[in-house]
Write a structure and sequence with these properties.
The complex is a heterodimer.
Chain A lengths: L1 E10 L2 E11 L4 E5 L6 H8 L7 E5 L15 E4 L11 H11 L4 H15 L14 H11 L7 E5 L7 H16 L3 E6 L2 H7 L2 E6 L2 E7 H8 L3 E7 L12 E3 L2 E6 L2 H10 L4 E7 L3 H9 L3 H4 L3 H6 L2
Parallel strand pairs in A: 3-7, 3-8, 5-6, 6-7
Antiparallel strand pairs in A: 1-2, 1-4, 8-9, 10-12, 10-13, 11-12
Helix pairs in contact in A: 2-3, 3-4, 7-9
Chain B lengths: L1 H20 L1 H20 L12 E6 L4 H12 L5 E3 L4 H10 L4 E5 L3 H4 L9 E6 L7 H39 L5 H31 L8 E4 L22 H30 L1 H7 L4 H29 L7 H23 L5 H19 L10 H6 L4 H15 L3 H29 L1
Parallel strand pairs in B: 1-2, 1-3, 4-5
Antiparallel strand pairs in B: 3-4
Helix pairs in contact in B: 1-10, 2-8, 2-10, 3-6, 6-7, 8-10, 8-11, 8-12, 8-14, 10-11, 10-15, 11-14, 11-15, 12-14, 14-15
Classes of the chains: A alpha/beta, B mainly alpha.
The complex binds adenosine-5'-triphosphate and magnesium ion.
């Protein structure tokens, strides 16, 4: 439904997007994973017609060039920065946008109702946006993209500052939309989100598309070994050969066969208090592809409260 | 086209709703003009003219030696004043009503007979003052009084020289032998009685000059109505076109509300960019011109609303617009003009601060030279000249034209044309730049 063909975009000397191509099928959530400044928002800006690509073409579902206003009816954008009329109520924001898209009467009321429910804001619909918490604004920001029921959704980090329950609620909603045949591009730098929601993920860095594939395939191809870490109860028996380094009562190593290794160690008389196995994930894929960790740039919000 | 209109209406409705919720903006748009109107209405006439040069017409309908002398004296009065002496009464009153002149002074027939002679019935002078310059009324009266005093002195000097020539004649007659005695005596007696009359005259006028008797009147100044409708009583009653002080202060005050509207909407465009809502409009199926049109429509509607509000308030206070029909094109042209100005201001800066700063800077300059702050008459003439390129001046003029200047459609055409042209040019310019920026 959406095809992006070899698009480029520069801001002066900064090449924000360099030759990205991708396509999206109806009923698919495509993850756009990359660190800060990777070019995710720039790419979404071009897909939504806000920016004209320097090179390359973009074709919207059944509609053509997003620079054509009518073609843009087929897409909904939830911008990365909150884009709301703060002095209007939640309901008024939605009604206004709905009217712009040509809805009226009962149809409009239905759409507004649906979006309020999706954002979980029915109870606060008559309150001005200024009185909302950050998470509530974020939810409304997402809901505003859905007011005209577009087949293509562009979500630019829609869960920033949202609490875990709300995040789960939003994920459910997004999955529901996918099940209804919507195509979704989901830009994020949280791999957990990408792996939870997306069938396919595009990894971008410095404006380039480094890989685009199903999550499982990416991990198989670039993920490498699992890492295992055990905390010992006592000194290991001297006869036992340890698979990794031993320091301060902790042994850690990397392997393709973590369970086999553990069985062998247990048979050799090793006792441990704790064991942690971490399989390869998008994080390791990203590390492999870019030589950098995603977490170097940004912290997971979940990590704040838990203290690591 | 219908869709564009509908979309623009949707955008404008949203903007007006936002305006209603922005207390500070509302204060600028509604509060300031009301305060201004009430304040200046209440203190109207409290101004004193400084260095202003006044344009005044003198119409000499008497054309007698003494009326001509009076005109000469007037013209030598504060020389900076601009005296026009070639107008008819009708022309002078019209010019005054249009605001081209501060005052018109009419010397009616018969003025020269008694002018400057004491103890005669005071001559009548007819004076019309532009009601918006009521402050200068006292000034004009002062000038007239002073001139009248000089005329009286001239006439007095004239009497003295006549007395001398009478004395001289009497002396000659007494020694003249060529005339028969009876006729000589009769002539001398007549001359002497003349001489006595002058003596008496001088005596009483001397007394008067020292005592300033309470019922003495140098000149009787009657206010002349500058209303268009002809009066059977040409001397006019002291009824003026301006019925209340609000007639003057409200058009001026309305300007501040209009400038407030233009600023508010110029700033709101930048605000939409800052708060990101512009992004939503850009992603929506709208063309950039439609977005600009939405803003323009909101500005236009709010200007019309402010003018209406000020009119209603003024009328509640006793203001009675004399050309109610003219108010409609006046409102529309003014709203159109300042909508264009809004579009231009919106292009100035990138932040709300820079746009509102620039806007209020521009507003103050426009208001200053256009008579929105101090009546034009108080400004030096070079500044008044600048006013001709100032939309504020034309907006005030057309509003006054409808409220009390009683503009004909012909007279209204110029300000209406100026306002509309400024609106077209500014909207084209500002709109083009904005569209590119979107
Ligand atoms: N308006 C702009 N003017 C100049 N440079 C820009 C502009 N917008 C983005 N850039 C640059 O383009 C590059 C890509 O930015 P972009 O916002 O697309 O990244 P992103 O992947 O969305 O990052 P983030 O995760 O932080 O949102 C960055 O180097 C950024 O500095
Ligand atoms: Mg971004």
């Amino acid at each position: 439904m959406l095809t992006v063909d070899d698009v480029y975009k520069s801001y002066g000397d900064v090449e924000a997007v360099r030759g990205v191509s991708l396509s999206l099928a109806p009923g698919e959530i495509l993850g756009l994973l990359g660190p800060n400044g990777a070019g995710k928002s720039t790419l979404l800006g071009m897909i939504s017609g806000l920016l004209a690509p320097d090179r390359g073409t973009i074709e919207l579902p059944g509609a053509g060039d997003p620079r054509d206003p009518q073609a843009r009816r087929s897409l909904g954008l939830a911008p990365q920065s909150l884009s709301l009329y703060e002095e209007l109520t939640a309901e008024e924001n939605l009604r206004f946008l709905g009217t712009l898209y040509g809805f009226s009467g009962r149809q409009l009321a239905g759409r507004v109702e649906y979006c309020l429910e999706l954002a979980g804001l029915e109870a606060r619909k008559r309150d001005r946006v200024t009185t909302f918490s950050g998470g509530m604004k974020r939810r409304l920001n997402l809901a505003c993209a859905l007011i005209h029921d577009p087949p293509l959704l562009l979500l630019d980090e829609p869960t920033v500052g949202v609490d875990p329950q709300t995040r789960a609620h939003l994920f459910d909603q997004i999955e529901r939309l996918r099940d209804n045949g919507k195509g979704v591009i989901y830009a994020t730098h949280y791999m957990e989100e990408a792996s939870r929601l997306c069938r396919r993920v595009a990894i971008v860095d410095h404006g380039r598309l480094l890989a685009l594939d199903r999550v499982q395939d990416l991990i198989e191809r670039y993920g490498g070994q699992s890492s295992v870490r055990i905390v010992l109860k006592q000194q290991p028996p001297p006869s036992l050969s340890l698979p990794g380094t031993w320091q301060d009562g902790i042994v850690s190593w990397e392997t393709d066969t973590p369970l086999d290794d553990l069985v062998r160690l247990a048979g050799g008389g090793l006792e441990w208090e704790e064991v942690a196995i971490r399989g390869p994930d998008l994080e390791t894929v990203f590390l492999k592809l870019t030589g950098r960790s995603l977490r170097d740039d940004t912290e997971q919000p979940a990590a704040h409260g838990a203290g690591g | 086209m219908i869709r564009v209109w509908r979309t623009a209406t949707t955008l404008a409705t949203k903007d007006l709703r936002l305006l209603m919720r922005d207390r500070l903006a509302l204060f600028f748009v509604v509060g300031i003009p009301i305060l201004y109107g009430l304040f200046f209405g209440a203190i109207s006439g409290a101004f004193q003219s400084g260095d202003a040069s006044l344009a005044i017409a003198i119409v000499d309908e008497d054309q007698s030696p003494w009326s001509k002398r009076f005109v000469e004296i007037l013209k030598k009065e504060p020389e900076k004043n601009e005296w026009r002496t070639s107008m008819t009464r009708r022309e002078a009153l019209d010019a005054c009503r249009r605001g081209d002149l501060v005052a018109a002074i009419v010397l009616p027939r018969g003025f020269g007979e008694n002018a400057g002679i004491f103890f005669q019935e005071a001559p009548t002078l007819l004076v019309a003052v532009d009601p918006s310059r009521n402050a200068e009324k006292g000034l004009v009266t002062g000038i007239l009084m002073q001139a009248m005093g000089k005329l009286a002195a001239d006439r007095l000097r004239d009497q003295t020289s006549m007395k001398q020539s009478l004395d001289e004649s009497i002396r000659r007659l007494q020694s003249d032998t060529s005339m028969s005695l009876p006729s000589r005596l009769a002539l001398i007696a007549a001359l002497k009685s003349f001489r006595n009359f002058f003596d008496q005259l001088q005596q009483t006028s001397d007394e008067n000059q020292t005592e300033q008797g309470p019922d003495f009147e140098f000149v009787h100044i009657e206010q002349l109505e500058i209303a268009r409708r002809e009066k059977t009583d040409a001397l006019g009653s002291p009824l003026s076109n301006v019925q209340t002080a609000w007639d003057i202060s409200f058009p001026q005050a309305t300007i501040w509300g209009i400038l407030g509207c233009a600023t508010t909407f110029a700033v709101s465009l930048v605000r939409e960019r800052r708060q990101g809502s512009l992004l939503r409009l850009q992603v929506a199926p709208l063309r950039p011109p439609t977005i600009v049109a939405g803003k323009a429509l909101a500005c236009f509607v709010s200007v019309v609303a402010v003018i209406t509000m000020m009119l209603v308030l003024g009328m509640a206070l006793g203001m009675r617009p004399r050309r109610p029909l003219l108010l409609i094109p006046a409102m529309l042209a003014t709203a159109f003009c300042f909508t264009g100005i809004m579009a231009c201001i919106a292009t100035i800066g990138k932040s709300e601060e820079s746009v509102s700063g620039a806007a209020w800077g521009a507003n103050i300059v426009m208001a200053m030279f256009g008579g929105g702050m101090i009546p034009l008459a108080f400004l030096p003439s070079w500044m008044q000249g600048i006013g001709y390129v100032d939309p504020v001046r034309w907006a005030i003029l057309i509003l006054e034209g409808a409220i009390w200047r009683e503009f004909t459609w012909g007279e209204a055409a110029v300000p209406l044309a100026v306002l509309s042209s400024v609106g077209i040019v500014a909207l084209a310019l500002g709109g083009t730049i904005l569209r590119r920026k979107l």
